[in-house]
Amino acid sequence: MPTTTLINPFTVQIDFVELAMREPDAHNVRLASVMRGYYKDQEALDRLIGGGGDPLHYETFEKHLPEEYGHLLFCISKLQPGVVGEEYFMTKGHYHTRVNTGEIYFCLQGQGYMVMKTSDGKFDAQRMTRGSLVYVPPYWGHRSVNTGGEPLTMFCVWPGDAGHNYGDIEREGFPKRIFQRDGREVIE
Ligand code: MN
Fold this sequence. Notes:
By secondary structure, this protein is mainly beta. It has helices at residues 42-52, 167-172, and strands at 14-15, 20-21, 26-31, 56-62, 72-79, 83-84, 87-88, 103-109, 111-117, 123-129, 133-136, 141-146, 152-159, 178-181, 184-187. It has a six-stranded antiparallel sheet with strand order 3-4-5-13-8-11, with no helix packed on it. A three-stranded antiparallel sheet has the order 10-9-12, with no helix packed on it. Manganese (II) ion is lined by residues 94, 96, 103, 142, 158.
């Protein structure tokens, strides 16, 4: 049996006005420059970074927990609104290192999509608005995309031993992207 460390129960307060975790152990900030290579229009990303002094792209608020079978990891994830060229702001996206692990994303604010793919070519995009709970099943790589005008804020829960694999998505990308054309969302 894998090790599961015994820890004491605790409570975390989520601020429903700020839509942030109070007293997180970790606040991870991702600036626009980490997205080099991910957007279709790379020059537009360079302009965004060059012109705006590398603006905030997305951030997570987390508690430190054992990354072990049996534990549940969780975070608040906040993705800024905007476009790179015509493409809506998105996260890098990842598979789980242990691919047979799922995840729950509960949308607290904003609107957008959870974009998903499997390594054998299946694609899915689930619409998210405040109150949408998206179930990301095992084996599906996942990325969030903000198509709205305010931050896309989500509460996420995943198995402690899932791990993150960013490399495969960085190489493969997703089969479809989400663009803003004539004020509309286009998935292609
Ligand atoms: Mn995940």
